[in-house]
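BUG: 3D viewer hangs when loading the predicted structure for this chain

Environment: internal workstation, default settings.
Expected: structure renders.
Actual: progress bar stalls at 90%.

Input used:
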Amino acid sequence: MLKQYAREIGVEDRVIFTGDLDNPHIATTVADIYTHITFGEGLPLALLEVMKIGKPLIASKIGGIPEAIRHPLEGILVENKAEDIIQRVEFLFQNPKIRRKMSVISRRAVEKRFSWRKTAFVLLKHFSKKPDK
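Structure tokens produced before the viewer hung:
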């Protein structure tokens, strides 16, 4: 159905439908833009991974995603409406300077807020608190 739609709107030569992949990191490294459209998530690790490698991204305003991505600097947050998603993808393709800037900002953000060192510090601080009596 999606392949047919891509053919109908004339983008078949610019979209790759991979199906299930043993190693999804291969696809993310060659993608120009990463989209994470979902109807239910906490905080997907995939988003932090693509931010770490500096991919511009578009993601759903669902669950913990808006807490992790500062719109529009680190990524673009969208409603799950096809028109909105298409508009944002086209915007990023037409603005390579914004894609590059978003890549740099998101890479720095994930290193600052979501590094293993930061995560360990927060967890240790949380678990070292004395229980209330």
